[in-house]
Amino acid sequence: xxxxxxxxxxxxxxxxxxxxxxxxxxxxxxxxxxxxxxxxxxxxxxxxxxxxxxxxxxxxxxxxxxxxxxxxxxxxxxxxxxxxxxxxxxxxxxxxxxxxxxxxxxxxxxxxxxxxxxxxxxxxxxxxxxxxxxxxxxxxxxxxxxxxxxxxxxxxxxxxxxxxxxxxxxxxxxxxxxxxxxxxxxxxxxxxxxxxxxxxxxxxxxxxxxxxxxxxxxxxxxxxxxxxxxxxxxxxxxxxxxxxxxxx
Length: 248
Ligand code: PGA
Hints:
By secondary structure, this protein is an alpha/beta fold. The chain has one domain (4-245): Aldolase class I (TIM Barrel, Alpha-Beta Barrel), CATH 3.20.20. It is built from 10 helices and 8 strands. Strand 2, helix 2 (43-53) and strand 3 form a beta-alpha-beta unit. 42% of the residues are buried. The chain binds 2-phosphoglycolic acid. 2-phosphoglycolic acid binds next to strand 8.
């Protein structure tokens, strides 16, 4: 399974920032062979940076999509629109969207299905918050997010799917999960995927996200069951992201 590293810029960087970033990052990516690297800029920067990334090892990812292909859905962006500008991966139900935009597991499932239908590769984000973990509910919460968020995905489609385990308490806090915590949850997710997709479940990449930095990426990527990383804050500086992409 090829490891996948995605930089999630969230609501940062203008188009001119994004172009400057791409120009800095590209010459630094020599060591990225054997792995897949993707950037998820805001929607406005997708189309402008696409020509710069073409022919490079960096793929384009989007941070969200809507589940219909077109129609009266003011403010939304569809799968075919993302396809047209060269997007490969699309994040679904990031915890910030669940929290600030009240995105539900039902919405997540519709988006995962739509992404598949449009030839995109969805990255379903799951993860418990601090209170869930303190109450011993982390596994229950993640299991439910997977079962509901993957409703409607056929076993034959599982090879196009990725899951990102992002404990909410680790996102943007500088407090990454320990390798033991990540290993435990990734193993649980793998088991759930086998339950949902039988042998198809083994093809799903499971990414870890939450305070991944140049300082901890090597250890996290060596953790059993971790097939990639979803990187927020540390992906905003091209040289830091280049170091993360070149994890050893
Ligand atoms: P972080 O964010 O790396 O800044 O913790 C990760 C994410 O939210 O995808």
